[in-house]
């Protein structure tokens, strides 16, 4: 009997040695093939396509901010009797202009929570494609509807907001399955930076399109680009790494070990609504998201108009100058994401303190530079202050924007839906508020708009510092693991049929 046990133990040791050597060979092959070929790492492919997704999302969102300047500036008209007069194509008051610009957010706010819930149920990848694709299609119909009536223009913008509202919650459903825990900040901020690159690129392009093709060209160009992108996303991005037939065995094991095994089937997810809605860390995220969006949406919507009112810039120039702060934001986001993950990996600070440092530090700096911009007497000084203020917001995104994944990964899409619902209110409130304040288009009136943004940044910093946490919350619901994706037995079978039993994820 003892002899049989000895033989069995020897066989187990030999089998373990075989599996270990096989998996280390897989790892060496994986490392050699993907050291510079980032496309062989599927999580980076997902991040890259998510980046271009948010690029399109914001290009489709900000196009009206530039187009409305061209739509309402005086142009030459020749009357039947030969008289030349100058009148705008759309003679809107500042209040009507504010309503047109904010109409998108009336739809956008409605689908945040439903979008997060649906993403958890049917897959964030599918909902993201539907959101971007439908918004792109509706964008193509914007010019003819605008020529028909202002009411129809407002209506189509509301419907665009309904579809685009699902995009932010959806991406957290994707990251909850694709992002290793120590890469959340860099992957999420890289994807989110597409929003600001989209703003940077689309604003000057919109100005050029308005100048050379007329303002309708803005909507046609970006609508077509969005539809092409949607097709690519639908074909490439899968709901989870377990469902991606092109992922390597090593990368799959690395993601699962870092992320932890979770149910892939959406039908198993049950959200603890009462606990989530009474959680201090959740409301810290909500307040931070609201504060960042107030300043961002105010500038995103009115910066071209501000340049025209205060510094008398023409339409073709406002797009270029308005894009500068968002270029800074896109760059800072990359630095901030890698820095946050580096601090976490080196154990220099706790995860909670990293989130507080990045978020509160950014908000305090934004408070100072928004006030400075309000008192700037030159276009150069104003742009420098706004660039620093908006750019430093990139650090805040390495705080609150990934905090959902820290405290409750299985519920991250719903939590993002909740925070983005509240954070959409600035898009609804700030444009009409600014429109009612800036009635005479003076620098003093615009100064009040900047003061309001600064005060909200300061309040957001205080609330987030007091209530923030980056620890997994006790109310997080654990699910029964799907046997086909079980990693508890240190064994995962991928589509390639490789059983990588003892893969060391720290080497990837």
From TrEMBL:
It is a multi-pass membrane protein. It catalyses: L-aspartate(out) = L-aspartate(in); N-acetylneuraminate(in) + H(+)(in) = N-acetylneuraminate(out) + H(+)(out); N-acetyl-L-aspartyl-L-glutamate(out) = N-acetyl-L-aspartyl-L-glutamate(in); D-glucuronate(out) + H(+)(out) = D-glucuronate(in) + H(+)(in). The keyword Membrane applies. GO terms for biological process: carboxylic acid transport; monoatomic anion transport. One of its GO terms (molecular function) is symporter activity. The chain crosses the membrane at residues 44-64, 99-120, 127-146, 152-175, 187-212, 218-237, 282-303, 323-344, 364-392, 412-434, 446-467. Pfam families: MFS_1. One of its GO terms (cellular component) is synaptic vesicle membrane. Residues 42-472 form the Major facilitator superfamily (MFS) profile domain. PANTHER family: GH23975P (PTHR11662:SF455), SOLUTE CARRIER FAMILY 17 (PTHR11662). This is Sialin. It comes from Pieris brassicae.
């Amino acid at each position: 009997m003892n002899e049989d046990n000895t033989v069995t133990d020897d066989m187990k040791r030999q089998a373990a040695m075989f599996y270990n050597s096989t998996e280390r060979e897989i790892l060496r092959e994986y490392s050699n093939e993907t050291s510079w070929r980032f496309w062989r790492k599927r999580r980076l492919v997902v991040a890259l396509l998510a980046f271009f997704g948010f690029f399109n999302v914001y290009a489709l969102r900000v196009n009206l901010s530039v187009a409305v300047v061209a739509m309402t500036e005086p142009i030459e008209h020749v009357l039947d009797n030969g008289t030349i007069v100058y009148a705008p194509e759309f003679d809107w008051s500042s209040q009507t202009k504010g309503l047109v610009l904010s109409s998108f957010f009336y739809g956008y706010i409605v689908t945040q929570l439903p979008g997060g819930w649906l993403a958890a149920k049917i897959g964030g990848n599918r909902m993201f494609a539907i959101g971007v694709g439908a918004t792109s299609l509706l964008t193509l119909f914007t010019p003819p509807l605008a020529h028909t009536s202002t009411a129809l223009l407002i209506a189509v913008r509301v419907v665009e907001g309904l579809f685009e509202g699902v995009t932010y919650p959806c991406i957290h459903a994707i990251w909850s399955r694709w992002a290793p825990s120590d890469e959340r900040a860099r992957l999420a901020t890289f994807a989110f930076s597409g929003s600001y690159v989209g703003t940077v690129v689309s604003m000057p392009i919109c100005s050029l399109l308005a100048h050379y093709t007329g303002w309708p060209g803005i909507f046609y160009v970006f609508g077509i680009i969005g539809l092409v992108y949607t097709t690519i996303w639908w074909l490439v991005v899968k709901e989870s790494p377990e469902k991606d037939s092109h992922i390597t065995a090593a990368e799959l094991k690395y993601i699962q070990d870092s992320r932890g095994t979770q149910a892939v089937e959406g039908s198993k997810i049950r959200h603890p609504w009462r606990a989530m809605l009474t959680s201090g860390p959740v409301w810290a995220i909500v307040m931070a998201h609201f504060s960042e969006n107030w300043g961002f949406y105010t500038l995103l919507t009115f910066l071209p108009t501000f340049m025209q009112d205060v510094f008398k810039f023409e339409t073709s120039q406002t797009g270029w100058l308005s894009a500068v702060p968002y270029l800074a934001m896109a760059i800072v986001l990359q630095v901030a994401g890698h820095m946050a993950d580096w601090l976490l990996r080196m154990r220099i600070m706790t995860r909670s303190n990293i989130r507080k440092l990045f978020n509160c530090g950014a908000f305090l700096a934004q408070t100072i530079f928004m006030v400075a911009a309000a008192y700037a007497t030159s276009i150069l000084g104003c742009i420098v202050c706004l660039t620093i203020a908006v750019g430093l917001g990139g650090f805040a995104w390495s705080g609150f924007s990934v905090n959902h994944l820290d405290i409750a990964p299985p519920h991250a899409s719903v939590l993002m839906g909740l925070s983005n619902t509240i954070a959409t209110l600035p898009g609804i409130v700030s444009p009409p508020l600014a429109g009612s304040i800036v009635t005479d288009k003076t620098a003093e009136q615009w100064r009040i708009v900047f003061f309001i943004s600064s005060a909200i940044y300061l309040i957001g910093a205080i609330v987030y510092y007091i209530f923030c946490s980056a620890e997994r919350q006790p109310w997080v619901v654990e699910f029964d693991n799907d046997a086909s994706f079980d990693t508890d037995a240190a064994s995962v079978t991928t589509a390639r049929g490789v059983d990588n039993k003892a893969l060391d994820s720290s080497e990837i």
